[in-house]
Amino acid sequence: MAVTDRALDTLGEPAERAERRWLTASRDFVRRRPLGALGALVIVIMSVVAALAGVIAPYDPLATDYGAMLGAPGAPHWLGTDAFGRDVLSRMIYGSRTALLVGLGASFFGATLGALLGVASAYFGGRVDLVMERFMDILLSFPLIILALAVVAVLGTGIVNVTLAIAIPMVPRCARVVRSTALAIREMPYVDAARAAGFGHGRIIMRHMLPNVMAPYLIMLTAFLGQAILLEASLSFLGLGVQEPTAAWGLMLRGAAVEFAETAPWMAFFPGLAISLAVFAFNLFGDSLRDALDPRLRTQ
Questions:
Q1: pLDDT tens for each residue of 121-134
Q2: Which domains can be identified in the chain, with CATH numbers?
Q3: Residue 185 contacts by C-beta under 8 Å, 6 or more apart in sequence?
Q4: Dihedral of alpha carbons 104, 208, 185, 19, sign
Q5: What is the pLDDT of residues 198-211, one digit of tens each?
């Protein structure tokens, strides 16, 4: 019985040490990078609001009330109503779901595909690397918004198509960053040992190279989140993203047309503030995470 207890204690020690390391790293991150911690706090609050939108939102975001059109902020509607009498606060709360869904989906897909292509390009080298890099050069020659508009024009509108349209321009940017790290990892002795042991290319890439490019991958992933949210809002504002009656911040800005700029400024002010705050928070957190994970940027 004593041997069993000691064995269980030994098994529990690594988990406790890992938990202590996470807690220590989190405290150091908050202490050394308060702005990044502030950005992370805003992101957490935004995520909680999106997850509990059905509980928090005071009204149905799609419900129209033509007797309360363009109502000013007040007791019944804290942030006012839009041209269809829909509650602005409720649509902003549900709009956070759309922003996070598209932003996280596009960032994860774009960064992951870019990381895989970057590692494969560095590992195989030669003609494969040459062809892939020239293809990435072609994609990089287009600005983000222009390439996203082109993809939307081909695929059409909707949340899934907009997510793909935002993810595709992010692929070459992540691939370039990850490739530069993977080129050094390719020359490491353990990669040569894996080749000598007869491991296949897929196993070497997935088990020996990809885990060692997680730092630049995470940096690019968090950096893309703010851009993805801004791109989604831009495409929706242009009428090429999420379509009515879905609650989305970009659509709310589009609904606040020029004719309502003076009579109902809250229609544009609050969604614009939400977009700016979300992008600012993700940028703060992404920059701080980059500083924390990049050994060349760490400060004592």
A1: 999 988 999 999 99
A2: 33-293 (1.10.3720.10)
A3: 122, 191, 209, 212, 213
A4: positive
A5: 888 888 888 888 88
